[in-house]
Design a protein that fits this description.
By secondary structure, the protein is an alpha/beta fold. It folds into two domains: about 1-155, Nucleotidyltransferase, domain 5, CATH 3.30.420.40; about 205-390, ATPase, nucleotide binding domain (Nucleotidyltransferase, domain 5), CATH 3.30.420. Helix content is about 40%, strand content about 20%. It contains 16 helices and 14 strands. It has an eight-stranded mixed sheet, sandwiched between helices. It has a six-stranded mixed sheet with strand order 11-10-9-12-14-13, sandwiched between helices. Helix 2 (about 65-75) crosses helix 4 (about 130-145), helix 11 (about 295-305) packs across helix 12 and helix 12 (about 305-330) crosses helix 14 (about 345-355). It is globular, with a radius of gyration of 22 Å. Bound molecules: adenosine-5'-diphosphate (ADP). Adenosine-5'-diphosphate binds near residues 293, 341, 342 and 345.
Length: about 425
């Protein structure tokens, strides 16, 4: 089955075409046929498409909206010159999977799209006012273009965390506020954490119910997840992705009083305060330089920049805090798994986050840690380490494609 996976942001459209079916899933033999990214939809859009093994197609075109962008992508996908194996026209796309950010308490697993599901995703807009409308743009456009004969599936970032117990997901505020408004922790990056759990299970040769790990997704956005018995029992992001770890531009955990204090003393509105916390905090806020971890590490090394070092130290300190928290919550863990742009590529951050944890018997092998970069999946702890440490590149698109197949075929989920 050729699955088109769509991930729409407010002004971007990312896609992959993945050939997969139940046998491919079982044997890990799915094939990524092509991928693409259109940025700056609404103005002069930047286009970057690539069929596997072919030279990238790059262009710039004025694309008005997501429908135009999708039509543009489809024109390229079905063009013979693109050389995507097995794709000659629209009929060669057999199903579509959409990444959806917020499914609230309603969507606990991936579902086939119909009018009722779409209105459910629309109902979740107040909880994710930036993300869900963008996801919906992709859904509306692809339903219009492909029509009802091509099955479409929604996969939610929040659904993996729907197994969290009340003790993890409730905020300690009046319970009626939860009952009335569903104010609670939902968690995000669920597809990534779920994929890490699945890969760990394969690497360690375990059954799903025996997977006990701490998954660390460290990218520009970052979150930690405690997976016990194969289920998410806690995660660091909350009602929105602002909570938890320190991130590229987001503050993570903070005393809520800061909001009122900042508004009052700076004379700024709530919206402006949240713009500071979302866009001008985290690595960029502390360093005053950039939200890019690569550049910060370089600044620290080459110019001994004090604030670059401080930002990196705080980033690692927060990771350590969550590892300690989850070790207590889970009563120990079998493994800590790193993923995301930083987690997959920075030996330095992995090492600094795990120093002074010898009390827990965590020991990484420096040589293996250095080797584990650029998309390599490997164990980096010493044989003596009481807790294993892995680097596992995430692949959310693959999980989106696999879920799409399973939902369309009504097959049980392996993970
Ligand atoms: P997003 O959350 O936007 O998907 P990514 O997962 O792509 O983010 O991660 C982006 C982050 O990964 C950036 O801070 C980038 O600097 C960092 N990164 C990528 N490669 C390296 C590297 N070799 N060393 C350190 N950080 C890296």
């Amino acid at each position: 089955m050729n699955v088109l996976v769509l991930n729409c942001g407010s002004s971007s459209l990312k896609f992959q075409i993945i050939e997969t079916d139940l046998a491919h899933i079982e044997n890990d033999t799915d094939v990524m046929l092509a991928k693409g990214l259109i940025e700056r939809i609404g103005s002069q859009s930047i286009i970057n498409f690539q069929a596997e093994g072919q030279i990238a197609f790059k262009s710039a075109e004025p694309l008005r909206d997501h429908k135009q962008a999708l039509l543009y992508a489809i024109k390229w996908i079905t063009n013979q010159d693109s050389k995507i194996p097995g794709i000659a026209d629209l009929a060669d796309i057999h199903a579509i999977g959409h990444r959806c950010v917020h499914g609230a308490e309603r969507f606990k697993k991936s579902v086939r799209l119909d009018n009722d599901v779409i209105s459910g995703i629309e109902d979740c807009i107040p909880l994710a006012p930036l993300h869900n409308p963008a996801n919906l743009k992709g859904i509306y456009a692809s339903r219009e273009i492909f029509g009802p004969s091509v099955p479409q599936v929604a996969i939610f970032d929040t659904s993996f965390h729907s197994t969290m117990p009340e003790t993890s997901y409730l905020f300690a505020i009046p319970y009626q506020l939860y009952s009335r408004f569903k104010i609670r922790k939902y968690g995000f990056h669920g597809t990534s954490h779920r994929f890490i759990g699945y890969r760990y299970r394969r690497l360690a040769g375990k059954e799903r119910d025996d997977v006990n790990i701490i998954s660390m997704h460290l990218g520009n956005g970052a979150s930690a997840c405690a997976i016990k018995g194969g289920k998410s029992i806690d995660t660091s992001m909350g009602l929105t992705p602002l909570d938890g770890l320190m991130m590229g531009t987001r503050c993570g955990d903070i005393d809520p009083t800061v909001v009122e204090f900042l508004s009052h003393n700076e004379g700024i509105t709530m919206d402006e305060v949240f713009s500071v916390l979302n866009k001008r905090s985290g690595l960029i806020g502390i360093s005053g330089l950039t939200n890019d971890m690569r550049d910060l590490l370089q600044e620290e090394k080459e110019h001994q920049d004090r604030r670059a070092k401080l930002a990196i130290d705080m980033f690692c300190h927060r990771i350590k805090k969550y590892i300690g928290f989850y070790l207590a919550e889970m009563n120990g863990t079998d493994a800590i798994c790193f993923t995301g742009g930083i987690g997959e590529n920075s030996a330095e951050i992995r090492k600094r986050s795990l120093t002074h944890l010898d009390f827990f018997g965590i020991e990484i092998d420096d040589e293996l840690n250095q080797l584990a970069c650029g998309g390599r999946e490997m164990k980096i702890s010493t044989p003596e380490s009481r807790i294993a440490v892995y680097v596992i590149p995430t692949n959310e698109e693959l999980l989106l494609a696999r879920d799409t197949v399973r939902v369309v075929l009504n097959a049980p989920r392996i993970w």
